[in-house]
Amino acid sequence: MVEGNWAFSPCKNKNMSAVEESKTIATLAAVKDYMLLRRVSWSTYQALLEAWGPRAPRHTYDRGSLEIMAKSSLHEILKSILGTLLRALCEELRRPYVGGGETTLQKEDIDRGIEPDNCFWLANAQRVVGKLQIDFDRDPPPDLFLEVEVSRTVLNRLDVLAALGVPEVWRFDGQKLQAGVLQENGTYSWSDHSPTFPELSLDELVRFVEQVKTSDHMTITLAFRAWAQQHFKKP
After folding, report:
1. What is the pLDDT of residues 111-135, one digit of tens each?
2. Which one of 3.40.50, 3.90.1570, 3.30.160, 1.10.12 gives the CATH number of domain 73-231?
């Protein structure tokens, strides 16, 4: 682990509000690469999300435990190109989608929340079209959750995703991309093919992602579109 990684349980001051506690955590997170906190209340977690705004670090909240990780350039570059290629794939296949980016998935009744690297509504795209504020108590979770795993996490993010009802997760460790499909027992079954895109071998997608070592993102995306146009018949 990189220098500065640490874990602690915040001292609960009865005179400290959730907003004040969240500001303390946000200040600490700004100078640390990794933090794992215990006994963080839902109200403090919500105040922290508001304090972070759109510049939130990568985080997972699971029933009082909050894991916060800085985003490395490797993580962000891989996340960016993978999301770009997925959008290009939808467009080439004429698959309607709504992109959710890093929208925080959270539900108070199960006391869990998580930030994706990218997420998409596909089968349920029409259910969220036009909604600029998603309410996960009423609206469906994203159909596809992208997870770039180039750093080790302590909290089990898949357990959180399963509890939130995310039907499919793509995990990329920098070399291998796999699709996990949620099962009835609350676990994910893994494969190198996605049921959402049965036309595509995920290994083929990785071939284009790996070109970030030698090419810019526009060049990669145009090459991927040209390849897709040759390999997929449009409806």
Report:
1. 999 988 899 999 999 999 998 889 9
2. 3.90.1570
